Amino acid sequence: MRVLYGVQATGNGHISRARAMGKYLKAEGIAVDFLFSGRPADQFFDMQQFGDFQVKTGLTFVTEQGHINYLKTAIEAKPLELWRDIHELDCSAYDLVLTDFEPITAWAARRQKKRSVAFGHQYAFLHQIPQIHDNPLSRSIFKFFAPAQQQIGLHWHHFNQPILPPIVDLEPALNTADPHKVLVYLPFEDQQQVIQWLQPLSQYQFYLYGPGLSKNQLGHIQCSGPCVDDFKRDLHQSSAVLSNSGFELVSEALQLQKRILVKALQGQMEQESNALALAQLQLGQSTSTLNTAVIADWLSSPTQGNTVQYANVALALAKWIRAGACPTELEQLNLWSDHRT
């Protein structure tokens, strides 16, 4: 069986899901070719797992200091290149096209009438889940940005909807969490501003990852640029996670039962809805403003009440795909059993 797997690479969360899925698809004997879009080729890192992958421009959002810049997003979009990439991508050699909210593979498969399956957090918004700033434009984006014959939404809770738990790229957890160690990942904020917020809180050890940072020790703040292995190690060893409200990192933090504080990317409906859902489920805290006082209050507050334990969704999906990806068999997997603790 040969599969073309498209990944929206604007954020690292989609790539992290692809790492998890790629391992299990390979274990099932499925040959996978990857296509990534939404990020310049020179901004990828630690991609050896994906072999000889393709990179396309695709579509992405431009962000500045915690907000989406819609004007720059429109200016930098390249619709003619997107149209050309969709029409030039040949899906004939593949038995199935998978897409994680990646538009080129999704629309190429649709154009060539190739069987396609989409999965990702964005597809959960096609159902009745907690949403903020829902409007016809956002609904159209989730429906038409990267469509497929079968669309599988992922979320932290089922909300009595036909969606699945998160796909997380984690090894078995070790009991190595340091109560004073905090992982910080706020890629949409000004990194120097983040450092200023953390500097007064010297009773904690902060491990800050972000764009433009190089490996550097600033007293109790360890700064690092993107690195998968170091990031995963520090995630395991931290007791708390401070981040924007992207879906994948929060999913991994929940699976590892970390304390969580999120600040949504302003103007990004998905992240703002994630922050709302996290608070409603009492799985973490959210804030619209970050500063030293807000971070200090969170770190000194009692731990959150609810915890979760998710099934191995990547393994289940890989086996389901290998067996033929029958929609009725997916409904019988029952991956939500006992996920709340």
Question: What would you say about this model in short?
Answer:
Pfam families: Glyco_trans_1_3. With 341 residues, the protein is of the alpha/beta class.
CATH domain fold name of the largest domain: Rossmann fold
CATH H-level homologous superfamily name of the largest domain? Glycogen Phosphorylase B
The count of domains is 2
Distance between the termini: 38 Å
Oligomeric state of the chains present here: single chain
Order of helices and strands: EHEEEEHHEHEHEEHEEEHEHEHEHHH
Helix run count: 12
Roughly how much helix do the residues carry, as a percent range? Answer: 25-40%
Low-confidence stretches: none
The structure class reads: alpha/beta
- Which CATH architecture of the largest domain would you pick? 3-Layer(aba) Sandwich
The strand line-up of the biggest sheet is: 11-12-10-9-13-14-15
Instruction: Report the portion of residues in β strands.
Output: 15-25%
Mean pLDDT over the full residue set: 91
Describe the structure.
With 341 residues, the chain is of the alpha/beta class. The chain has 2 domains: 2-167 and 311-331, Glycogen Phosphorylase B (Rossmann fold); 178-300, Glycogen Phosphorylase B (Rossmann fold, 3-Layer(aba) Sandwich). Helix content is 33%, strand content 20%. It has a 7-stranded mixed beta sheet, sandwiched between helices. Helix 1 crosses helix 11. The protein starts with a strand and ends in a 10-residue tail after the last helix. The model has no long low-confidence stretch (mean pLDDT 91). Pfam families: Glyco_trans_1_3. InterPro entries: MJ1255-like.
